[in-house]
Amino acid sequence: MNRQILWVIVFFIGVILNSCSLDNKITNPTTPDDTTIPYLPSPANGVNNISSYQRLSWECSKAVNYTIYLDKVTPPMRIIKSNTSDKFADIIASGNGVVYYWKVVAKFSDGSTKEGPIWHFTTSQSASTQPGYVLTNHSITTATPNIVKMLFQVTDLENKGIDYLTINDFLISEDGYSVSKYESNMAITKRENNPYLIKTVLMLDNSTSISDDLNSLQLLKDAAKNFINNMATQQEVALYKFSSNPELVLNFTNDKNALKNAIDNIGRGFASTNLYGAVIEGVSQWTDIIKPDNIVQGSLVLFTDGNDTQGSKTLAEALNAIGEKKVYTVGLGSEIEPEILAQIGRQGNYTITELSELNQIFLQIQQEIDAYANSFYWMKYSSPKRGNSEHTLDLSIVDNPIYSVAEGTFSSAGFFDPAPGVYINSSFVKTLGDSVFTLVAGGYPVELNAFSYGGIKTPIYNWGTNPMLIVDEINPPENSHVKISAINTATAGDVTLIVDDIENGFSKTLKFKISK
Quick one: which of 287, 357, 496, 507 has the fewest CB in 10 Å? Predict the structure, then answer.
């Protein structure tokens, strides 16, 4: 009897051990035979209830770079990163309970590629209420005498622009050590004081389901004109109508009256609706640019009361055309396909039941466009570093609930400590800048950039007056950038102009040599 009991115990122990062994084989991924095909995804394939902010990662051997696809449809068509040597990509997977599909294509030194399997994960079912700020560094540059500049962006976990942060919300560190924002004269500016252009394509469905009802058409026009009334500074709008085909009504302009007159002239369309063709045409009208001296950010705002009935273009073609561009969709009525409009309107998707609701939605979209534009920040400060060395720069937000840092490197080569005062067109080659300039009467102007060293306040410049000179101020109220020319009737000789930094009490006298 004891021997029988012993054998039973041994049998069950064996079953348990074998079960554990099988579990390990299931839960612990093994290295595949061909490691040149991307494998070992993180998050794990099929995982549920994950947060919006994720780092996608994988393993792969011998590849020189990767292209990553992430989408809400399978197979995924949207490229989020290409030609990168990193085996990771940070993403924001917006939405609750949304399935995301992703894959990695590896490229090798001989030009060949290998495509990994399609993996997927599902975001959390509950509403995301956790605040958090995502920082993205777009560029780091330096200027005399010891100025470090960073162009960066701050968004939330759903890629909406965060436009309300001030200098007190940020922390700077160089080589891991904090830099005082006050001792470094740190300054933060946003789009209105920098080169920035918002380009918006307003695409209106005027198919017969709308245009045959004069009251509905008028409500649409009124809402569109109200959208134009709320245009931001540095914004241009291109107006389109579409039914069987998208038609340009008025190209990009900031002339509100011209746009509203063009809206009034929109008439009856056709019974066919070329929704996908309208999307493809709309997003082709601009190129997003992010450079320190030139930012262009566009978006498509599309209103429709139906689905694509023409069939000349496909949803896949429309989504591929969108890529990383921002699209907002507004759908009205029972004939729309909400799931499709949600895929197209990745930046924002709205469904309304009455045209009277359109005013509020258009206003909300315009506010989001404006906030996104103001989520780009230009930061500059005086670095204490000296010598021909490379340094790391980290910019973070005070009490950020998530870890996110805008980081990069800069060289302190040429940095020096100047005497307090105003300097014109200073550079590392010409640290003291210029004081004498040559002009031809009635000829081309010279461009002057002023910078104050040693001040404790943000400078505001007054360029004085001289009857022989024309001063064109480029960026009020700071007025640090001007164009100065000589009038047609100016006499040959030398004239002077005094520029004052009225905030810090600095002055500089400039000499202009005028020739005929």
Answer: 287
Neighbours of 270 (CB within 10 A): 15
As given in the structure block, the two tokens for residue 136 are: 């993205």
3-state secondary structure labels for all residues of 129-180:
CCCCCEEEEEEEEEECCCEEEEEEEEECCCCCECCCCCHHHEEEEECCEEEC
Cβ neighbour number for residue 455 with a 10 Å cutoff: 17
Q: How many CA atoms lie within 13 A of 48 on its CB side?
A: 3
Rounded CA gap, 183 and 386, in Å?
16
Residue 216 sits in the same domain as residue 338: yes
Does some domain include residue 326? yes
Residue 256 within a domain: yes
Kindly report the pTM of this predicted structure: 0.66
Range of the domain at 115: 39-123
Is residue 128 assigned to a domain? no
Q: What is the CATH number of the domain that holds 53?
A: 2.60.40.10
Is residue 173 located within the same domain as residue 88? Answer: no
- Helix H, strand E, coil C: the string for 281-323 is HHHCCCCCEEECCEEEEEEEEEEECCCCCCCCCCHHHHHHHHC
Q: How many whole angstroms separate alpha carbon 49 and alpha carbon 42?
A: 14
Q: Model confidence over 71-105: pLDDT tens digits?
A: 888 888 877 788 889 999 877 676 678 899 999 99
Same domain membership, residue 341 and residue 234: yes
Domain check: are 156 and 242 in the same one? no
**Can you tell me the distance from the alpha carbon of 166 to that of 287, in angstroms, rounded to the nearest whole number?**
29
Q: What is the pLDDT of residues 237-275, one digit of tens each?
A: 999 999 999 999 999 999 999 999 999 999 999 989 999
Specify burial of residue 370 (Cβ count, 10 A radius: 0-12, 13-18, 19+): buried
- DSSP-based three-state secondary structure for 187: strand
Cβ proximity of 343 and 319 under 8 Å: yes
pLDDT of residue 30: 67
> CB burial class (10 A; 0-12, 13-18, 19+) of residue 338?
exposed
Q: Is the dihedral of CA 27, 31, 34, 40 positive or negative?
A: positive
